[in-house]
Records
---
Amino acid sequence: MTDHTTFSVRRPLTDAELTLATAEIDATQSTAGILDAVLRTVFGALLATAGELLNSYGPGRKLDPGQFAIPAAQHAAITEACLSRAAAFGTRLTIAMDLLNVMPSTYDDPAVIAPATPPRDHRPNAHVLTVSREATDVIAACARHCGELGQYFGEHSRQYQEATGSWQRNLTLMFSMDFGAATRVTRDGELSLLVSCASGFTYGIIFHPQPRRCTRQDCAAVIGNDGTARTINRESPACPDGDHVPAYPLDAPAPGTWSFHS
């Protein structure tokens, strides 16, 4: 933890300063405007304590946000206001990353509590989700694959739980408005999807099947669906007798998980 004596300014914002900051953030009309509102209101107030002005800083004299600190509760309230406003533009992820470099440091102050009023919900009233015909087939295939894992390995098995949990998490993300209120979903493989968002952000929901490896000691063979074995590690040759023991049977649905890839 950094000692408070190293900060140029370390103090709580007044109620009026915090109210102004959240109001200015709430009134912005763009993602860039959110960051500008933080600089003008939060750092404008903190710099005034040191007898300085924000416009004294620029390319030749850069502002170091880490030299300023506000209570953690106020930091969280301002961050949430920024994220809430960014939801209108589908840029919550962008703002979350930018705030890491823009917001002041924090310190604990039990006497300072967060505002009781939650930030406004700036999300559009509707999320337009366009799913291609091929993508609907993929979604059905993914659900079917999870069901087959449950039937083969059992619904309490690791194979079923991991696959189903990862599919549900990523499917839920597709309905999120964090990346904009218009989303197009297309096919990206037999069990994978490509998601293009209104904000310009594109990501994949990709299925990663578990390799069917031989479980015999010192064998590095991977066994295909047709029973053909191949060695991926030359230093660990396949079973000399060719009698492999696959991690899961040839007729079993492939265990695996879905993951988010940007």
Note: The chain has three domains: 4-107, 128-209+252-261, 211-246.
---
Amino acid sequence: MNRLDNINPDHQGLSVYIQKLAELKKLSGKISGSFNNNRKLADLRTNRDDPIGRIQSLETNLSATDHQVVQAFLCCLLARNYFAHHDFLDKELIRSEKSAFMLKGILLTVLILLNV
């Protein structure tokens, strides 16, 4: 049985998966709380203005490591939303500091949550 099988089909999505896997990995509840409170930063339906920069400039009261994990989770969610529905950042994503930041976030998320 898959560890994500018990998620209600009506509530499946990357943000729920990230939160569930973080819980299974016993990551700090502060990480999940901050991720959940800042998910709007990855929403491209209402705000397309510098989405990667918004995540880069996020301020939290978390430790440096926990802060980086929250940013990574947000980058992963942003990438999923962007690549599934948009193309307005395509030129910016070619070899830029922001694309490197987002890619690092995706990789960090996968490495943290992979072996649950």
Note: The helical segments are 14-24, 29-37, 51-56, 64-85, 97-113.
